[in-house]
Design brief:
Helices cover 37% and strands 25% of the residues. The chain has 7 helices and 11 strands. A 6-stranded antiparallel sheet has the order 7-6-11-10-9-8. The chain is elongated, with a radius of gyration of 27 Å. It starts with 6 loop residues before the first strand and ends in a 6-residue tail after the last strand.
Length: 246
């Protein structure tokens, strides 16, 4: 079973004794604990490290916790990182509002309850890690989708186009967006009976057809259609076979 990477947790407090106490409470193989004793130092760390959570003392000399949070929210690299404010005055309504307006997700009061702190750290850091990994996976899939040389279309149960990869624009000189929601067969010319039938049964290999282009003659293609896993639609792959013609 693949082990999840350790989550970096940045703890920011101007009192070293508080850093020691927080570190002792949060010591866990799942976490990499980073420490900063000022807002400026915290922002320097955040410029070079990816963290899953910031535990931020509100009352610090110089740059206080609210200002650090506002600076984090301005930076695309850190604007989505969850922040837990650590303060002795978190029950005072104006301070709570100020923290949320600065971009904080939660508060923990001083003195803190170790179990409550551990629970909040686990929830926020694991949620951020999962969200970040989902975004990365989506980006990897997008790059794969964009790099496929053949035209790939997803088609719903009604035979309408749901998506087209960029290869469609490269081959036909036509933008993808206007085609979404239109019948898949509108992309083609020639004898379309086999294509209609294949979309109904969601299974066919190497159907011959002609792919319409923005300019010039249509391109001879072969089409294979397979069911879209877990859904009622299909995936159609269109291959240019013009090079096979004499």
């Amino acid at each position: 079973m693949e082990t999840e990477p350790r989550r970096a947790i940045l703890i920011v407090d101007d009192y070293p004794a508080n850093l020691v106490a927080l570190g002792a409470v949060l010591e866990d193989p799942a976490y990499e604990l980073l420490e900063a004793t000022s807002g400026t130092e915290a922002l320097e760390i955040l410029r070079t490290r990816e963290v899953a959570l910031v535990i931020l003392d509100v009352q610090m000399p110089g740059m206080d916790g609210y200002e650090v949070a506002r600076e984090m929210r301005k930076d695309p690299h850190t604007r989505d990182v969850p922040i837990i404010f650590l303060t002795a005055v978190y029950r005072e309504d104006p301070q709570v509002k100020k923290g949320y307006l600065a971009g904080g997700q939660d508060y923990v009061g001083k003195p803190f309850d170790p179990e409550v702190l551990r629970a909040k750290v686990e929830v926020y850091s694991s949620m951020f890690q999962r969200t970040t990994e989902a975004h990365r996976q989506a980006e990897r899939l997008r790059r794969v989708w964009d790099s496929i040389e053949e035209i790939v279309a997803t088609v719903n149960a009604q035979g309408e186009i749901v998506s087209l990869n960029p290869a469609f624009e490269r081959v036909t000189g036509t933008h993808c967006e206007p085609r979404v929601g239109r019948p898949f067969v509108d992309l083609l010319s020639g004898d379309l009976g086999p294509v209609h039938a294949a979309l109904v049964v969601r299974d066919a290999s190497l159907i011959g057809a002609e792919l319409k282009r923005a300019a010039g003659a249509a391109t001879p293609v072969e089409i294979s259609i397979q069911p879209l896993v877990g859904e009622s639609g299909s995936v159609a792959v269109i291959r240019d076979v013009s090079s096979r013609r004499p």
